[in-house]
C-alpha cells in the first residue's frame, strides 16, 4: 500500500532534485552558468514546498513535493516534484502520488493544480492540459536568411502600435492556455510589460525588430539578450496574420537567431503557449527542444483522487 508522510528534513530529496534538474538542463543544451542561474530561481521557491516521502510497506520508494500559493487572485496548487525510484516504477506509486497531491492541494483551497515536467511523464499527466512549453536551441552557426526578407530596428513611431498589439496578443495567449480569466490576463499583461521594458525601445539588452518583404512590413520581433548567461529569450517573433503560410515563420526565427549571435549569445529560448499547435510544430521542425512543459488541471477532481494524509 502506498503511503505518504511529510518530511521534517528534505535535504536528501533536495540534493537529488537539484541533480536531476541540472541533468535535464544540460540535456537541453544549457551551459553550466545558465543552468545554475535557472536552478537558483527554482531553489528560491523550494522553501514553500511540502515534501512527502512515498513509502510502500515501510520502504521509501520516492518523493512528491507540493505547494499552494496565490496566483493573480486564485489559489493554485503545484506539484514541484514527483519521483519514484526506478526499481519501484510502474507499480502504481506514481498514480497514487499524483492523486495524493491533487487532494492535498484541493483541501487547502486550490482551484487549479500545475505541474512542470522536466522528464518524460506524459502518460501520468495525460488528463492535464498543456499550458506552455519552454523550448531552446543552440545557435552554432549563422542562420540562412530567407530570400527577400529583411529585419531592421523598430522605430519610435512604430513602437506604440506594436506595444498595444503585443499586449492584446499576450492576453489572448494566456486566456487560450486556460491559465487566467480575460480580466486577470489584462492585469498581468500590464504588469509584465511595465516590468520587462520600462524604458520602451531604450530598455537595455533588448532588440526590437521589424520584418519586411517587398517593402511591406510582414512581422515583428522582441528579444531579451543575456536572459540567462549566453541565452537570448524570444518574447515575441510574430508574422502578421495576412502573411502567414508563406514560410515567413522560419524567416522570423532566422532573424531572431541572427540577433542572438550579434548580441554575443549562443542559444535562443522561447515560451510556447498551450493551444498554439502551429508554433509548436514550427519550433519542432526547426530543432527547438522542449526543456520544460507546464500542465494543469482544475480542482477538485471527482475521480481518481485518492486520499490525502
From TrEMBL:
- Spell out the InterPro entries in the cross-references: Acyl_CoA_acyltransferase, Bact_Acetyltransf, GNAT_dom
Start and end residues of each N-acetyltransferase domain? 149-304
Gene3D superfamilies, from UniProt?
A: 3.40.630.30
Pfam families to which the protein is assigned, alphabetical: Acetyltransf_1
Q: What class of enzyme is it?
A: transferase
- Which PANTHER family does this entry report, sorted A to Z? AMINOALKYLPHOSPHONATE N-ACETYLTRANSFERASE-RELATED-RELATED (PTHR43877)
Protein name per its UniProtKB record: Acetyltransferase (GNAT) family protein
